[in-house]
Request: fold
Amino acid sequence: MAEMINVNSAQIISNYTKDQKKYYIEIFYIDNGIQAFASFQENINKIGASIVGSGYHTTNKKLAIDSAIANLILQLN
Reply:
């Protein structure tokens, strides 16, 4: 049986820059931490879609975002 996760709030950050690349970031504040998803901003702008990387951290939004970006880049290798 699937487990439901409660989302307390969400945030979208367009044009988040890291290492001179721009990302589209979706952040979900859930009961037990912060779940972030990263996509390539250029792909979102051009076609409205992109591969997605996800990251999680219990309390630190930046670490969740960095993890999501790292997972996104990892998919390309």
Remarks:
- The helical segments are 41-47, 61-76.
- Residues 61-76 form the longest helix (16 residues).
